[in-house]
């Protein structure tokens, strides 16, 4: 009986995160879709109504990451007033509009405008998605479930190339449109996070939300955890992004204690003990982007075509994106077994 209760407790959190991941799937598909339209619109022998030269192609591949960067700057500002779930639901609307706009586009500027909208939406989604995972999961599951966000993006890229290898790029856009539509239907069935609801002075809704997220159980059985969450929110009325953290030994540290222990000063930021790990991490992030993984993925169809690969250029790109999915899955297990460092 206890095992069944525990399994339901875990399963409800997995369901919440997987539904959220549908939105990340759509984001991944928007990135992979660029790799489909570039070869279709740069072929001088094609009968497409849209043709892009080399300069326009360069902008096509750069617009989504640039717009996403700008969107990320505004992501947090919409998450607090609209809620985590509310923000995700609203942001499915521009996703749907973007996919339909690809299908209807007749000129290159319309493609560019759609890429800007899609990229900006991708950036806006990041804060509510990450905060939602942090606030609906228990600390012992949070790391594992949070890592599925990257996996969902990789699967989205894979699906974009798979659909693009089978269908015309306009039809592929319509098929891709179904993902955010399904996402909004399922997101509407999820509860808002109890942290945000308490911050909005809605304790009864917060209690029901927590009961849903802990195995669709009764409110009485989650009362102890609810009281702890309520205490955290009262101490931080502006909202709580992460209810708890884990130290190196795996012990759960309350948020308030973590903040007090980790609050930096200007002097701390100048210390070698901070600068050394910070510089190493910054280098790793910069290097991981400069090695060209994202660019290679976007131009994979063109690359295989240029080098006259002995297999279909689209199928080769599908295989390449599937390798990314396998690597994302492997990463989850490696982090679980050996830790983040």
Automatic annotation (TrEMBL):
Localization terms from the record: Membrane
Q: Which UniProt keywords apply?
A: Membrane, Transmembrane, Transmembrane helix
Q: Which GO terms describe its cellular component?
A: membrane
Q: What is its main location?
A: membrane
InterPro entries, sorted: MFS_dom, MFS_sugar_transport-like, MFS_trans_sf, MFS_Trehalose_Transporter, Sugar_transporter_CS
| Signal peptide as annotated in the record | none
Membrane topology according to the record: Multi-pass membrane protein
Q: Kindly list the GO molecular function terms attached to this UniProt entry.
A: transmembrane transporter activity
Major facilitator superfamily (MFS) profile domain location is 16-341
TM regions (residue ranges): 21-42, 62-79, 86-105, 111-132, 144-163, 169-187, 280-302, 314-338
By its UniProt entry, which PANTHER family does this protein fall under?
Answer: MAJOR FACILITATOR SUPERFAMILY (MFS) PROFILE DOMAIN-CONTAINING PROTEIN, PTHR48021
- The identity of this protein, by name, is Major facilitator superfamily (MFS) profile domain-containing protein
